[in-house]
């Protein structure tokens, strides 16, 4: 008897598309339809899995009344282009990670899902593997004591190749959006609350994407987390959760099935097992169908929003790019942007093709930046035009670093200003409301 109650369509027929088709088949169902940019690939995919409907255009899925749930597994720089029309058409959507490129896109999708009363979720395996629920039960029992710290590693070795998505800026490559979302999701799953303090460092690949990153997080309960990511140096996929009475280790955590608890008092090691790595997509499918049916909600869109950040400088993913910190010995808060311009907004810059860095910044003497509800005053200065000092209504001085200071690959003549405008808007939206209680245009001079 089939455990599948809804009709699924897949946009994309790559590795995840195959795993989805196999998962649905193992549950007694199957994909109803498939769409792909290359229709011949979609037709071959359909023939392999007995799928009756292949769309001539991927967009045709949105108007198909027979589709209940769409799984989006296209490259993540295209997700928002399919998310919004799918949600607007009243389709439930399970979207491969990273669900969007930044918090602005994510909140547009969340608002669309709410407006049309449909389920939206990121296909984050961590939220669905049985081992994680078992560990949460053990935590809830109190036997491990209070949570103190989480340490995360995830590193793979990829050759420098501008054509593959890992290092291609036009495809939104980089460690954070490819593997960092796993680590941040793991951290958020176990922390009591969303982190409120973020520190980060980044090393750029020759193509300008983030090759390595280290991130420190702390929440209001003073639970801490440390994350290290790399795309050009192998690391184990390991998560360690430290409590007062012991620590939990999990390897291969994106689809983990086993964990080991080491008890502090006597050094005893206890292995915990639940679920199967091979069934990761089945767990996602079953949880998604339960959410659509209104039976339970284990999709954790709230954790996805926390991890990506909702225009909040203290959210982990956004905080990696925009974090309020004291810097360079100044008695000022600093909004530093180590990744924002080169990682999260670089696809917008690079959409028309890669360009060589300009010999100079070619900064105009005056540029209008419309920051909407924000009300700061800008002065552009610092090292070669890389620092903007901001004085909002609360009288504090904020410093925004950009271009050469943090991301030399992004020094791309004036095309960067469009992205700088978005970066600045996000920075101000993260400030206290008293700092942005007026509405006027701000000036860089």
Distance between the termini: 69 Å
What would the principal axes of the Cα set say about the shape? globular
How large a portion of the residues is in β-strands, by DSSP E? 25-35%
Mean pLDDT: 76
In short:
By secondary structure, the protein is an alpha/beta fold. It has helices at residues 15-26, 39-49, 79-88, 103-115, 130-141, 175-190, 280-292, 301-308, 316-319, 340-344, 346-350, 416-429; strands at 8-11, 33-35, 53-54, 69-72, 92-96, 120-123, 147-157, 195-204, 210-219, 224-230, 232-243, 246-251, 258-263, 269-273, 323-325, 333-336, 367-369, 378-381, 387-390, 398-401, 442-444.
How would you describe the overall organization of this protein?
Strand 1, helix 1 and strand 2 form a beta-alpha-beta unit. The strands form 4 sheets. This protein has an 8-stranded mixed β-sheet, with helices on one face. The chain has a 6-stranded parallel β-sheet with strand order 3-2-1-4-5-6, with helices on both faces. A 5-stranded mixed β-sheet has the order 15-16-20-19-18, with no helix packed on it. The protein has 445 residues and is of the alpha/beta class. The N and C termini lie far apart (69 Å). The chain is 28% helix and 26% strand. The longest helix has 16 residues, at 175-190.
Give the topology, please.
Elements: E1 8-11, H1 15-26, E2 33-35, H2 39-49, E3 53-54, E4 69-72, H3 79-88, E5 92-96, H4 103-115, E6 120-123, H5 130-141, E7 147-157, H6 175-190, E8 195-204, E9 210-219, E10 224-230, E11 232-243, E12 246-251, E13 258-263, E14 269-273, H7 280-292, H8 301-308, H9 316-319, E15 323-325, E16 333-336, H10 340-344, H11 346-350, E17 367-369, E18 378-381, E19 387-390, E20 398-401, H12 416-429, E21 442-444
Parallel strand pairs: 1-2, 1-4, 2-3, 4-5, 5-6, 7-10, 16-20
Antiparallel strand pairs: 7-11, 8-9, 9-10, 11-12, 12-13, 13-14, 15-16, 17-21, 18-19, 19-20
Helix pairs in contact: 3-4, 6-8
